[in-house]
Write a structure and sequence with these properties.
The protein has helices spanning 5-10, 13-31, 36-44, 107-114, 133-150, 177-180, 186-204, 226-231, 268-275, 325-329, 344-354; strands spanning 95-101, 123-131, 160-169, 209-215, 219-221, 237-248, 253-258, 264-265, 295-296, 311-313, 320-324, 359-369. It has 372 residues and is an alpha/beta fold. It is globular and about 95 Å long. The protein starts with a helix and ends with a strand.
């Protein structure tokens, strides 16, 4: 008996080959990882609106209109191994999260923020403001500028902006520069600052964030290429030198002076002081009552020096601090307690070092602090 057409189809070699090719293709599709191109597309998609309020906080979320239904919470797959933080941050479209604890609003700060040349569609902003009258005023002024910027030129708009309000008031009665820098106020003030920084970081750090730039609200002048310049060093933690412009009466002209003394190289004297301290005591820099004899980056400036010169540091200030997001994801945060007798940003540098991440400084590269 000759075979029927149906049985021929079952044993046709072409059908078998096609079935095998389809099976292999399906298995490859399921188990393969996205290419670098796919990863960069994911990063570019970070500028789109989030579908739901529970989406990653680094994406903007727009509330639906009254006649619209809420979209179901999305399930998103992130390939964190494809996320880069490199010396070519802008070319690779790496996203930057700029975080600012803000007790007072300075228009000069906002204007300088807008002048940053890094593509704003790759920048997310996060702010945390204290409870109380001063915080209310600062929040109102900030929201006015946010509304103006986000409804203005597309090139100036940021990918997302998050504003947090603390549930506690500042431990200081006033935010004046004189009061902020009194020695007796430092432990309580910087512990409160640490808690604010940690709350802001843990709330806003998203799975697409490559870099975190900590920028104080009273930093009013930086190079427009600040992000590109700092990222080009490809360091896990890097800080520029923070100075202040002022009128020098002796010289009869404008001059500059060091402002932030928290970026330093440790000394045997400071280490010996720490060994004699109680477990909750902290070392502070820049006070004659506590002479540590550390090498301060503020005094490493070279006239007409190379702005790209690097020095390794043991402590860092937070006025303008660029951190690879991986450092924070590894657990490096700002201790609000004595951590090896260090607190806040200096304690952060120590914690990052214990996790294997080194800190670096640029003694000849400047940002400028507001002068009250």
């Amino acid at each position: 008996m000759s075979p029927s057409p149906r049985s021929l189809r079952r044993t046709n070699p072409i059908s078998v080959v096609l079935a095998l090719l389809l099976a292999v293709g399906f298995i490859y599709f399921i188990f393969s990882e996205p290419s670098d191109g796919a990863a960069s597309n994911q990063i570019r998609d970070a500028t789109k609106s989030a579908a739901n309020a529970l989406s990653p906080p680094s994406l903007p979320f727009r509330k639906p209109k009254d006649d619209e239904e809420l979209v179901a919470t999305p399930v998103v797959h992130y390939m964190m191994s494809n996320l880069t933080n490199s010396a070519e941050a802008e070319a690779k479209q790496e996203t930057v999260l700029i975080l600012t604890p803000l007790a007072r609003f300075y228009q000069e700060y906002w204007d300088n923020l807008l002048s940053l040349s890094y593509p704003h569609e790759l920048i997310s902003l996060g702010f945390i403001l204290p409870k109380g009258k001063d915080g209310n005023t600062a929040t109102q002024l900030l929201q006015e500028q946010v509304a103006k910027t986000q409804s203005g030129s597309k090139s100036k708009r940021f990918a997302s902006i998050t504003i947090l309000r603390q549930d506690t008031e500042s431990p200081l009665q006033t935010q004046s520069e004189h009061e902020r820098h009194k020695l007796e106020n430092q432990k309580a003030r910087r512990a409160a600052m640490s808690k604010a920084r940690n709350s802001l970081l843990f709330t806003t750090l998203g799975p697409r964030t490559s870099w975190v730039l900590w920028l104080d609200s009273d930093i009013i002048e930086t190079p427009p290429t600040l992000i590109q310049d700092l990222a080009a060093h490809d360091k896990p933690v890097i800080v520029p030198n923070c100075f202040q412009r002022f009128y020098n009466k002796e010289l009869g002209r404008m001059d500059v002076r060091p402002y932030d003394f928290n970026s330093w190289v440790d000394s045997p004297t400071a280490q010996a002081m720490g060994e004699k301290m109680g477990k909750d005591d902290i070392l502070l820099e820049g006070y004659p009552e506590m002479a540590t004899y550390r090498t301060l980056m503020a005094y490493m400036v070279e006239p007409d020096g190379d702005t790209t010169k690097e020095v390794q540091l043991d402590g860092v200030g937070g006025t303008a601090l660029l951190v690879k997001a991986d450092v924070h994801r590894d657990g490096a945060m700002f201790p609000p307690f004595a951590f090896y007798h260090l607190i806040e940003t200096e304690g952060f540098a120590k914690m990052a070092s214990r996790l294997g991440w080194k800190s670096w400084g640029l003694p000849n590269y400047f940002v400028f602090h507001y002068n009250e």
